[in-house]
Amino acid sequence: MSKFLMPSLGADMESAILMEWLVKEGDRVSKGQIIAEVETSKGVIEIEVFEDGIVEKLLVKEESECKVGEPLAIIASDEKKPLHVEEKHESKQPVVQETKEEQIVSEPPKPTALHVEQEARLKISPAARKKAGETGADLSKFDPNDGVVQLSKIEAASTTEQEEPTKIESKSDTHIEKNSGMRQAIATAMSRSNAEIPHYYLSTSINMTPALKYLEELNKKRSIKDRILPVAILIRAVVLSLKEVPELNGFWQNNSHQISKEIHPGIAIALRKGGLITPALLNADIMTIDDTMNSLSDLITRTRGGKLRSTEMTSQTITITNLGDLGVESVFGVIYPPQLAVVGLGAIIDSPWAEGDALCVRKVMRATLAGDHRATDGRTGGVFLDRLNHYLQNPKELL
Amino acid sequence: MTKEELKRAIIEQILEIAPDVDESEIDPDANIQRSLEIDSFDFLKILTSLNEKVGIEVPEADYAKVDTVEHMAEYFSKHL
């Protein structure tokens, strides 16, 4: 028997609202199954259970606010216990064996394929859910098969339902309110980072022409829906470089440097109306370039639709931030604690480039690395950027 | 499809992929990605769903020719 606690979905979270239970008392659950949805400042997150068992008791009601670590349910162990029931991953951070200063940690919950399909349930964006809460719109009227309920649908529903137009806030008010929570959470985490982590910064210019040419050839043979975007090869190159320089992939915790075996890069994804979430691209190290593209596409869609899972919010081993779409030349990131580094990728810009004795024009991208000086130094970071450059000059190795 | 119908289809796809964009924000002569904060992923999604609807596949090399709603409609009407 164990208690299922409100997980911490990031260093900056103190509490969240349990929006919906997806299981009831008496249900059998298996490790990795999504059993509840909670609403945080970052949107609705699906919470997974970390062991097999039976839901004995649900301790909190839907739509109540719970602090991190508060018991939410009691899970009774399954009668048919698997042989090794030792792995009780209640904490959200990787389990660490205390040995020497540098340790290899193994990540807890692998994303499970055996995630039981739930009956169709309503998908609703964070802003829409919030609006529904304010206006009292009846969510049961929406058909779960019609796709994600967006803010506009709730607004349309509430204007037809309510005769009291004074109650309805304007769209922009809602955004300001939604943003301030997230802005505050980001500010808290980043102040902590700047205060605690001695950062070092490195920057290098990378000739992207070979990689882009290669990608162009690859995409020519593909239909539009199978096309690979440059960002996918960039992520792939970062991941392969991390395999060679694992010291940057992991955590600084309990005054020690912990290297993670798995590579789960947190990808900075901007929400169009403000704010930023960095969910993990889980197990990026075992993906092909196509897997990377598909998983990234899925992750971005779910981030913007407010449908992330708890493991994606807690497993990041490094952060990648790519501001290339906005034309920014270089981005010097702030490390998200307890991670060890953040990789910044700027825009790919036509620039003068010396090759041998000649000056030519090439597609150039500036890659940066901010590292935690307690764990590594510029030499490690330099090796990493050198490997990144190597992969982008030899794009065949990225497949 | 006329150019006007194509424009309508493009705007509909933008609104579908980026539901928080308001139709009034869409300026047919403005760069779609920059003016509406649509990243390369969403842009590709818009092109993919338009490909399903209109049947035109925009090769990567032609992305610069479909940067605004107006240009995209023009490009599509030429290639129909």
Mean pLDDT of chain B: 90
CATH class of the largest domain in chain A: Alpha Beta
**Helix/strand/pairing category of chain A:** alpha+beta
State the domain count of chain B: 1
The amount of helix of chain A comes to 25-40%
The main sheet of chain A orders its strands as 7-2-4-5-16
Distance from N terminus to C terminus of chain A (CA atoms, Å) equals 45 Å
Measured by DSSP, the beta-strand proportion of chain A falls in: 25-35%
**Are there runs of chain A of 5+ residues with pLDDT below 50, and where?**
81-101, 106-120, 160-175
Rg result of chain B: 11 Å
Question: What is the helical fraction of chain B, as a range of percent?
Answer: 55-70%
Count of all domains of chain A: 2
- Say what oligomer this is: heterodimer
Specify the number of helices of chain B.
Answer: 4
Total DSSP helices of chain A:
8
Can you summarize this structure?
The complex is a heterodimer of chains A (399) and B (80). Chain A is of the alpha+beta class.
Structural commentary:
The complex is a heterodimer of chains A (399) and B (80). Chain A has 399 residues and is α+β, with helices and mostly antiparallel strands. Chain A has 2 domains: 2-77, Beta Barrel (OB fold (Dihydrolipoamide Acetyltransferase, E2P)); 186-397, Chloramphenicol acetyltransferase-like domain (Chloramphenicol Acetyltransferase). Helices cover 28% and strands 27% of the residues of chain A. Chain A is built from 8 helices and 19 strands. Chain A has helices at residues 126-135, 151-161, 171-196, 209-220, 230-244, 289-305, 310-314, 378-393; strands spanning 2-5, 15-21, 28-29, 34-40, 43-48, 53-58, 64-67, 71-77, 102-105, 199-207, 250-253, 256-260, 265-267, 269-270, 276-277, 308-309, 318-322, 341-355, 358-372. In chain A, the strands form 5 sheets. Chain A has a 5-stranded mixed sheet. In chain A, a hairpin with a 2-residue loop joins strand 18 (341-355) and strand 19 (358-372). In chain A, helix 1 packs parallel to helix 2, helix 5 (230-244) crosses helix 6 (289-305) and helix 5 packs across helix 8 (378-393). The longest helix of chain A is centred in the middle third of the chain and has 26 residues, at 171-196. Chain B is mostly helical and 80 residues long. Chain B has one domain (3-79): ACP-like (Non-ribosomal Peptide Synthetase Peptidyl Carrier Protein, Chain A, Orthogonal Bundle), CATH 1.10.1200.10. In chain B, 57% of the residues lie in helices and 0% in strands. Chain B has 4 helices and no strands. Chain B has helices at residues 3-17, 32-36, 40-54, 69-79. The termini of chain B are close together. Classes of the chains: A alpha+beta (399), B mainly alpha (80). Chain A binds chain B through residues 125, 127, 150-152, 216, 219-220, 223-225, 227, 229-231, 270, 272-273, 296-297, 300, 325, and chain B through 18-21, 33, 37-41, 44-45, 47-48, 51, 57-61.
